UniProtKB/TrEMBL annotation:
PANTHER family, per database record: LEUCINE-RICH REPEAT-CONTAINING PROTEIN 47, PHENYLALANYL-TRNA SYNTHETASE BETA CHAIN AND LEUCINE-RICH REPEAT-CONTAINING PROTEIN 47
Keyword Repeat: yes
Signal peptide segment: none
Record keyword Plastid present: no
Classification via Gene3D superfamilies: Phenylalanyl-trna Synthetase, Chain B, domain 3, Ribonuclease Inhibitor
Region (Disordered): 261-298, 516-543
Bias (Basic and acidic residues): 269-280
GO molecular function, one term: RNA binding
One Gene Ontology biological process: phenylalanyl-tRNA aminoacylation
Domain of life: Eukaryota
GN (gene name): LRRC47
Protein name: Leucine-rich repeat-containing protein 47
Boundaries of every B3/B4 tRNA-binding domain copy: 331-507
SUPFAM superfamilies referenced in this protein's UniProt entry, alphabetically: L domain-like
């Protein structure tokens, strides 16, 4: 009888937790049919053992209809947690206990639950001091929320992306517009009746989606958001019918300009006659400048600008296409690609400067590859179409930069051993090189990879590229990719920055005459007369534009997912750059 009692009280097995404890992993994923029964046995919450993993950086629990609350001890037991994904469960109607404080958390996904409110004490955590001081991405979509907590901006002051789509919100709290770093706000498919003019208080806002709400007006102050590139107001019955027609068919730039001048003829401030007079005045000024020689200076200044020309898919029948396999959704779902032609990496240290620039971007805006990863390839060595997919570590093979062909599983293990040896030699916890990014793959059943038409893996983000497509001094046409587990907009922003830096480097190389670098083995077959011709053309090409070709990212059925650069990408206002579209 006693033995039977012991068997009845035996805890449910949690092999995933055992594995994380045993191997001191930083990522824990709980999903699948077996999870349902175990959570139900634990009283609709996670077992306390989950909250006794102090090294954990990422916790993901998805698709469990039995999970009604995370359980007590989360904040206290997981102080290093950076990513918390509790998507598609049954959390609600509030969070009990509240989540925070989680001082290191950057990504929080509570989408697809049954949350109705997030009040103080049963929400995200306290506002003073901030419960989520490092949070950058918050996803509350597909719940039943009628209001957002007024203290959200103080609870998560560094928030950059907020998704509250598909709820029952009737208003956005005024305090929300104090988020100085907020760049993406998605609130489509709610019951919003008004957008406050205080939206102008979001200086970093780039994307605003308020489609399918109950808005009757759009405040003119929206046009004062300096970085706003993408807006969506479709599905709202606006009083201004001309504006309603514009939001369903015009580009964001045209809509914002209409709002800026006050809508339907208001605020334009100039009659047709005064506009003509203004035009004549400008012509006279240009003529006077030309006669005095100032016009020549302006022409010289225009020549000295960085020129970037965008080649559209319709102009390029041989454009590269990237297919995305749905398996990457659970690994690293976001990818943006493009082609850049016209780089000159031959002279002096041009290639070294290019590679150093890429490393610096990885350290800075890519946040040491945690936000995104850049990969650059020699276009001539790529055979399309390309496929972005996920493979098991045992099946994925790659020839990493500077190494021989190896399975991904063995490469990761090799890098782990190298990292351990590096720690022992330098007697410190931190490591350098690729070893710093190994934790980003912890707990992943499959690894992301980009594969060419010959089924050769050319990229294994966020770890390495293939030796096959390595950039050399002879490379002039490049295929660029940016991948992320966080956000598509992050990929686009980083690609914008990468192309701008490439244009600046190219102009520097062309204007500063350096001797050709022929020390690389890849330049062995280049003849003397060819190099001489290159030098002679360098000065001539100093004002030639860098060509940026659009690349389509599609699903496996060929439906468009991403086109880069689109009309809203590379929207650079710097005075030293000219974008030719």
């Amino acid at each position: 009888m006693a033995a039977a009692a012991v068997v009845a009280e035996a805890p449910e097995p949690w092999p995933e937790v055992d594995l994380v404890e045993r191997e001191q992993r930083r990522e824990l994923l709980l999903t699948g049919p077996a999870l349902e029964e175990r959570v139900r046995a634990a009283g609709g919450r996670l077992p306390p053992r989950v909250f006794s993993l102090p090294l954990l950086h990422s916790l993901e629990v998805c698709g469990c209809a039995s999970l009604r609350e995370p359980g007590p001890g989360l904040a206290r037991g997981l102080p290093r947690l950076r990513s918390l994904v509790l998507r598609g469960n049954a959390l609600g109607p509030a969070l009990s206990p509240e989540l925070g404080p989680l001082p290191a958390l950057r990504v929080l996904d509570l989408s697809g639950n049954a949350l109705e409110e997030l009040p103080p004490g049963r929400g995200l955590g306290p506002a003073e001091p901030p419960a989520l001081p490092q949070l950058q991405s918050l996803n509350l979509s597909a719940n039943r929320l009628r209001t957002l907590p007024a203290e959200l901006a103080r609870c998560a002051p560094r928030l950059q992306t907020l998704n509250v789509a598909r709820n029952r919100l009737r208003a956005l709290p005024a305090e929300l517009f104090a988020l100085q770093l907020l760049s993406e706000l998605a609130a489509a498919d709610n019951e919003l009746q008004e957008l406050s003019p205080a939206v102008a208080g979001l200086p970093a806002l780039k994307t605003l989606d308020l489609a399918n709400n109950q808005l009757s007006e759009i405040p003119g102050e929206l046009a004062d958001c300096p970085k706003l590139k993408e807006i969506n107001f479709k599905g709202n019955k606006l009083k201004d019918k001309r504006l309603e027609k514009m939001v369903n068919g015009c580009q964001p730039k045209s809509i914002l300009e209409y709002l800026r001048v006050g809508g339907r003829g208001k605020g334009r401030g100039k009659t047709d006659g005064s506009e003509k007079e203004e035009s004549r005045k400008k012509k006279r000024e240009r003529k006077q400048k030309k006669e005095s020689g100032e016009g020549e200076e302006e022409e010289v200044e225009e020549v000295n600008k960085l020129l970037i020309r965008i080649l559209h898919v319709s102009e390029n029948p041989t454009s590269v296409t990237v297919q995305v396999n749905p398996m990457v959704k659970d690994v690293r779902p976001y990818i943006v690609c493009t082609v850049v032609k016209g780089m000159n990496l031959r002279p002096g240290n041009a290639l070294k400067r290019f590679l150093s620039m890429q490393t610096k971007l990885h350290e800075d805006i890519c946040e040491k590859r945690t936000a995104a990863t850049i990969a650059t390839h020699d276009l001539k060595l790529i055979k399309g179409p390309l496929v972005y997919r996920a493979q098991s570590p045992q099946e994925l093979k790659i020839v990493p930069l500077g190494r021989k062909e190896i399975k991904a599983k063995d490469l990761v293990r090799q890098l782990q051993l190298e990292a351990e040896e590096q720690r022992k030699q330098k007697k410190r916890q931190n490591v350098s090189g690729l070893h710093r990014y190994l934790h980003l793959l912890d707990g992943k059943e499959n690894y992301p990879c980009l594969v060419d038409a010959d089924n050769v893996v050319i990229s294994f983000p966020p770890i390495t590229n293939s030796e096959k497509t390595k950039i050399k001094t002879t490379t002039s046409d490049l295929f660029l990719e940016v991948t992320s587990a966080t956000s598509l907009q992050i990929c686009k922003d980083i690609m914008d920055t990468l192309i701008l830096k490439m244009a600046e480097l190219n102009k520097f190389t062309l204007e500063n005459k350096e001797e050709q670098s022929l020390s690389d083995t890849e330049a062995d077959g280049v003849s003397g007369p060819f190099n001489l011709q290159s030098n002679q053309n360098a000065e001539k090409d100093s004002s030639s534009p860098l060509i940026v070709e659009q690349v389509r990212v599609v699903d496996m059925e060929g439906n468009l997912k991403v086109l880069y650069p689109s009309k809203t990408d590379l929207d650079i206002t710097a005075s030293h750059i000219t974008i030719i579209r």
